[in-house]
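We treat protein structure as text, and this decision shapes the records that our systems exchange. Below, we set out a record of this kind in full and without editing:

***
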Amino acid sequence: MTTPSHRPAPQLSRRGFLALGIGGLTVAALASCTQTPTWVAPTDPAVDRTERDRGGSGRIVTTALTAAATTLDLAGTTARTYSYGSIPGPVLRLQAGDTLQATLRNQLPIDTSVHWHGLALRNDMDGVPPLTQQPIATGDTFQYEFITPDPGTHWFHPHVGAQLDTGLYGVLIVEDPNEPLSYDDEWVIVLDDWLDGVTATPDDVLDELREGMGDMGSMGEMFMRMGNMLMGADSDLLGGDAGDVYYPHYLINGKPAADPAQFIGTPGSKVRIRFINAGGDTAFRVALGGHRLTVTHTDGYPVEPLEVDSVLLGMGERYDVIVTLGDGAFPLVAEAVGKRERAFAVARTGEGQAPAADVELAELGDGRRVATAESLTASGAAALERRGIDRTVALTLTGSMAKYDWGFNGKQFDMHDPLRDAHAIAAGERVLLTVTNDTDMWHPFHLHGHTYQHAAGGPRKDTSIVLPKQTLELEFDADNPGRWMTHCHNIYHGEAGMMTVLAYRA
């Protein structure tokens, strides 16, 4: 079998970007429509003022990241991929209010960037070419520097092409200096679906998907693989079609079920588990055999504690739970929802034989309680102050697998003209997002630079599952000026066009 090789994905050329420039994006937008407003640029003084107003602790945490080719050992199967030195990448830790100085060195054969997922950071550090910065070219370095204002479980990954579906991701934990939770230990658990360097590259997959399914979507309930596509993946929990990409491996902290990750604890101890879904096309339902989980946070923000059997995570979502460990060896299973596969690890507190990777978990059975955003309530500290709505932005998720024409409001994002269909907001407004899924598939909706609150006292989040034919009402305060990407966090949907921009008027 020939090992898939990486190749540059079509993108805005560096020369073209430099000719356009960050400031030139406004000119391009104005040229496309005479009524287009003037937008706040990433270099606008308002961005600097907002950063100064955050204050911060004055402490600076420095780190260096190198994006480079690497080889991942998948229980004897080797995969050439990209990473930040390990898979997952490093766990970066700092306290709320600290300043992160992260220098990225690009040793890839293609442009890259780093997006700091979940952080309400300054606009010019958001890592989204060509919207907020120049792409980081091969051999170049770029220093990200920003205050981390809010505690929480976050992560980082590129925002160039389909690079997210390689090994380019790591964890960013912003700790609360006045942490109210009490626990004895902490586990960071990163879930991922894996194909890169095994069956294909993400670019190969995207090319195949872009051809669309045509009439193949009428094949009924048949479950099968066709090339890099997966037919018949279905889930009631996700409202139907669960995903369309075939993955040969599902990983927990970079390890497949045949070589499972091990988490060591002490019987009776309380462990805080930080779950992160770094997958490209897979929702995971995660459970720890023989245990119940108490959900404490989602996307970094506290919720009213809720005891459940399992937790559902769409791509980009994070959930923190507290669990009191039993005595023995227990299966930690992340079910690839609808795809009839799973990621698997072992939690061990004592002697005994490790459970088999295919062990059946009662916690994943029908009728057991699953944590979703709809089941959660923001804690008092996380809830937005009640106030009137100043602006409503209606976003409709559109497209289909048949044509693979994913977009917002019937339009596909134009990387060469990123502000063409931007949605205007203004500083100081309370904004209501109505996110309507007009498709037959679920989508993980993600907003950059802000956190919103679900309607009716729901949780504070930055990434939310939107089920087919459903509408989410999400409120946020426009308090972070700039140009902010909003997109589906299924990497293939986003790259096909399901991205748009919320932009502040100058």
